[in-house]
Design brief:
mainly alpha; 11 helices; 0% strand
């Protein structure tokens, strides 16, 4: 495959060509941004030039232990995400497989998932205090209830014909679940895990403004108090960079695990 399919409807191109296009688009965007900032189209306290953001990023690396704060945030996000995934996958499968479970849990899950996470910050502080548990809980809260419904939908989309064929050859419920349903829903399940991991990162700022003294969200929130827009944007850039790298690793895992897609 080469870059010949870039202008073809549903064309296929090589990963190298896709990466080159992505890098070129990012460079163009940065050039436009730099030009807008340098020509004064936007006041620098609202939109500093990328070069100033890079300078702020370097200063945060040297003087504010940015790498350590990033490690703290990554640990919080992955702890909350893995906790949500471990709970949501079996519950979502059961909700879709047994109607009594689905009928009992779906209204509750639907109700809670529409509640805005920031509105639950005071309650989470009352329940868990202001230590690490509150931050993990807020990240988990923003992920679990969305993921459980996505897993239930994945399970629901397993073709009934697959289940009937497995039953015909004598498979019991456990084997249908393990050898048919999980294998069939695997690709979409991994995609949904990748998507909800991104959602988990979006709640980081909310989680790390709750009496925090560490994490990228804490650095961003502290810089906001002093209107240090370059530092704020450097922190946001770090979150985006971590998300981009994680997403690409999960995409690679998806290609390796399901090469037939």
């Amino acid at each position: 495959m080469s870059g010949g399919g870039l202008f073809t409807f549903r064309g296929r191109v090589s990963p190298v060509a896709e990466a080159a296009v992505g890098a070129a688009a990012a460079l163009v965007l940065l050039a436009v941004w730099e030009a807008c900032a340098r020509t004064g189209l936007v006041a620098p306290q609202f939109l500093p030039a990328p070069s100033r953001v890079v300078t702020a990023f370097w200063g945060m690396l040297k003087d504010q232990n940015l790498l350590w704060h990033s490690g703290v945030s990554i640990a919080r996000v992955w702890t909350a995400f893995l906790l949500a995934a471990v709970m949501a996958i079996p519950i979502g499968i059961l909700m879709s497989s047994y109607r009594i479970v689905g009928a009992a849990l779906e209204p509750v899950v639907d109700f809670i998932r529409y509640l805005p996470v920031p509105a639950l910050v005071p309650l989470s502080i009352i329940w868990f205090g202001v230590d690490e548990t509150t931050k993990i809980f807020l990240l988990w809260l923003g992920t679990f209830f969305q993921l459980v419904l996505l897993v239930a939908d994945d399970m629901r989309r397993v073709p009934q014909e697959y289940v009937e064929v497995a039953r015909t050859v004598g498979a019991n419920s456990w084997h249908v679940m393990k050898d048919v349903a999980l294998r069939s829903m695997g690709p979409s399940l991994l995609d949904n895990l990748r998507i909800t991991l991104g959602w988990c990162w979006t709640y980081l700022i909310i989680a790390e403004i709750v009496a925090a003294n560490s994490g990228i969200g804490y650095l961003i929130w502290t810089a906001r108090r002093f209107v240090k827009t370059p530092e704020v944007m450097a922190g946001v850039f770090v979150i985006g960079l971590i998300g981009l790298v994680t997403d690409q690793l999960l995409r690679l895992a998806h290609r390796r695990l399901f090469p037939y897609l």
